[in-house]
Amino acid sequence: MEDKAILDDYFHQKRYEQADATFMTLFAWQYPYEIQWAEEDNVLYIRSGRGKKQFWLPPFTKKDADFVKGIARMHEWFDARGYQFLMKGVVPEAAKRIHDLCPDCYDITPDRDNYEYVYLTQDLINLSGKKFRQKKNNLNHFRNQYIGNWEYVPITEKIFGECLDAEKTWYDQHDTDGEGDEELLGERHAIETVFNNWDALQAVGGAIRMYNKIVAFSIGEMLNDDTAIIHFEKSDPTIRGLYQIINHEFVVHAWSHTTYINREEDMGIPGLRHSKESYNPHHYVEKFDVTLRQK
């Protein structure tokens, strides 16, 4: 946590749109993804992954720092260990800088599974027009079906435990073979980490209580001056309209002052991609993988 001020200083140098450029993301996922960082000559380096499948994010630079030197230091690191050069989370601006640096040196490949979905806040609040008809139908079904039996509540320390109980219910519904899912367990650890450092991370959350039980919750933060980012959202999939209600109520109560909502990537999961596409994103935060071109 004592590293937060250092990393935030880099992330506030310019307007970043991607989830990788927030301390909460890196801090919450540091153990599941083995995230490490280093700083040298006003360049911030972030690496992740295990064994020979390690990768780096593009260098984050302060004013007058040397982006090119940052790339060179990455090459030194990979070469010293005999690993294949791999940079992930490369947004278009950084991809262009890397291509211009040496047009014939790198293969720059779209990483569609990690494109982040960015929505207009007012679209998520109003759900206007034919393109949101099904969302609004589900929302109205929930409100009519459970009238007087549900409420939206902000997340505070008092309900951390209830939210974790709801997450466990969600996990049990998705761990169908009962053998444990490493990715989902990593996410649980990340959520617990956020709860354990809630105030320091300046996290914001909302939950839906039905029949005196938390059945859905969402956690986010401000990403930049006009965008909120939703890091975690859990909901009982057996209750029609519950996903729509937590999505809608959280945005209305916590983020109505923003212009955009970033709901992160779909990780190539078909159902998640369909869900995120169905909310009609305003644009994507495109990301690319950068590898050395084979000669």
TrEMBL record:
- What SUPFAM superfamilies does the annotation carry? Acyl-CoA N-acyltransferases (Nat)
Q: Which Pfam families match?
A: LPG_synthase_C (PF09924)
**Ranges for domain Phosphatidylglycerol lysyltransferase C-terminal:** 20-288
Q: Which domain of life is it from?
A: Bacteria
The name on file for this protein is DUF2156 domain-containing protein
Q: Which organism is it from?
A: Megasphaera hominis
